[in-house]
Amino acid sequence: MIYQKLGTSGLAISQIAYGNWITHGAQVDNETAYACVHAALDAGITTFDTADAYSETRAETVLGQALRGLRRESLELCTKVYHPTGTGHNDRGLSRKHIMEACHASLSRLQTDYVDVYYAHRFDSTVSLEETFLAFSDLVRQGKVLYVGISEWTADQITKGAALARELKVPLVASQPQYSMLWRVIETEVVHACEREGIGQVVWSPLAQGILSGKYAPDKPLPQGSRASTSAGAPFFERLAGQWLRSEVLQAVSKLSSIASEAGLTLPQLAIAWVLQNPQVSAAIIGASKPEQVQENVKAAGVRLDPEVMRQIDTTLDGLIERDPAKTG
Ligand code: NDP
Predict the structure, then answer these.
(1) Do the domain assignments include residue 202?
(2) Which of 35, 240, 278, 301 has its CA 20 to 30 A from that of 325?
(3) How many domains does the chain have?
């Protein structure tokens, strides 16, 4: 495993982080969840990503159980606030009330006194940035949150948030956007805004939810047990990755397999290594429904891809890549 600093902060994180969206508390049973977490730890992953809203809060509970008893200082635990955690009108968003209540609930489910990175899971246009950042500032002063991040904010929102964070001395250090060979919307604006502010990218769905593993074959039924085929995964898959389940994309992806094998990699490893070639990317968050996937995917850490390989990937995916920054969020 490679460990590197998150943006310009002093916090070192594992270049490959493990995330439990859709899987823990929903798609996989707890034994499998624990086995995946242990495969991650065995491979040197120290950075774990979750959110209060994942699997209606069950994901944090499962992760807390899986990590119980481990040396807290050896882990970076990251969670998020914004999406609904209940049906009450204050059970969502970035108000002071919800941030405070959500943070305390997350700490309890994760069985920890503090989180290393606490993300605003989306931008909340119904609450002033001042209110949100003052709440974050108080959590930081209380020692319950060490660093702050944002997820799927536009460049303009990030710039405004960073100015306020500076004023309030809130360590805003992380951006968590979707990023993969197929989804490159951060490249034109978000990455530059973050670079100016010293904010690192911790990217999600580097495999485009499994599309870039190559297992979704053109004109074939969905593989059994895959995210796209399970009741826990299908709605999210359909909304965020369904656009890629068409034969022109799947055919292009199958061509990437030979590029991967010529580079001595599997296709998932190539896809994860690809996001890590961007110097603004501090870590890639991988998801897994089986420990074997973790064991395979972590081998992307530290891989350098030749410019020629990068060029071949772009040629293969030409016309299929989403780059529009307006798609942020
Ligand atoms: P990936 O793109 O890495 O997709 C992971 C899924 O792909 C696995 O669960 C598995 O699904 C399949 N897969 C993984 N490895 C392999 C392999 N080697 N061979 C075949 N299939 C494989 O990431 P996720 O979409 O899971 O996102 C990762 C994390 O990012 C999340 O857990 C979460 O922490 C974070 N995230 C953050 C968001 C945000 O808004 N901030 C939004 C979404 C995610 P299966 O076997 O079931 O098909």
Answers:
(1) yes
(2) 301
(3) 1
Q: Dihedral angle at the C-alpha atoms of 130, 135, 138, 142, nearest 10 degrees?
A: -160
d(CA 198, CA 60): 28
Pocket of ligand 1 (CB under 6 A): 19-21, 23, 49, 121, 151-152, 176, 204-210, 213, 215, 226-227, 233, 268, 285-289, 293, 296-297
Set 54, 82, 119, 179: catalytic member: 54
Question: Does the reported pTM lie above 0.85?
Answer: yes
Domain membership flag for residue 269: no
Residue 227 lies in a domain: no
CATH code assigned at 7: 3.20.20.100
Domain residue limits at 293: 3-208+278-303
Burial of 130 (0-12, 13-18, 19+ CB in 10 A): exposed
Amino acid at residue number 177? P
Does the residue 259 lie in any domain?
A: no
Instruction: State in Å: Cα 23 to ligand 1 middle.
Output: 9
